Amino acid sequence: MREALADALALLLPTSCAGCDDPDIALCERCAAALAPQVVRRPGEVPVWSALAFAGVAARVIRALKEDGRTGLARDLACALSAAVAEASASVLASARGDVVLVPVPTSRAAYRRRGYRVVDLVARSAGLRTERLLRTVRASADQRALGAEERRRNVAGVMRSRAAPGVRVIVLDDVVTTGATLAEAVRALRAAGAEVVGAATIAATARRSGAHSGS
Question: Where does the UniProt annotation place the signal sequence (predicted)?
Answer without folding.
Answer: none
